[in-house]
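Researcher: Structure prediction, please.
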Amino acid sequence: MIKTFRGKLEDSEQEKIRLSTKNGKIGYQFKKLVIIGNTPGDATSEGVVKFFKVEQSTVDALVDFSDHNLLAVGYWEDGSTAGYTGTLNIMFEKEIFNQDIYVTLKNTEGSVAMNYYIELEAMPLTDNAAAVSTLRDIRLNPQVGA
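Model: Predicted structure follows.
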């Protein structure tokens, strides 16, 4: 089953997408990510939208693929005067998670809001798979279990 979520973020904003269940027996995997500026073609802007497994203490535009909490990244570039537009989306599709996720936006040029649309594949998890996923998140992120 595919679940979809969409929203709009302002520059330096973070938003929580509620996915967790009481028993953690529903897992999710990214299938699609689309981002677009709030006013395409209207203003020069560059923005980075990132999806994480845990809440971020700071919102920045740094992209680090070695961060085990990073699930997906979208980059949007738009130039009103130069006439260029570009998007780059990267998803780590094999990652299965069963907790809430967090999305952030940081503009590197301009302060244009960004829209995002994601499709997540929902799948039932066995008791063991749910426990492994939850324990992995707690082990890698001690604040999750607090």
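Model: Residues 127-140 form the longest helix (14 residues).
Researcher: Thanks, that helps.
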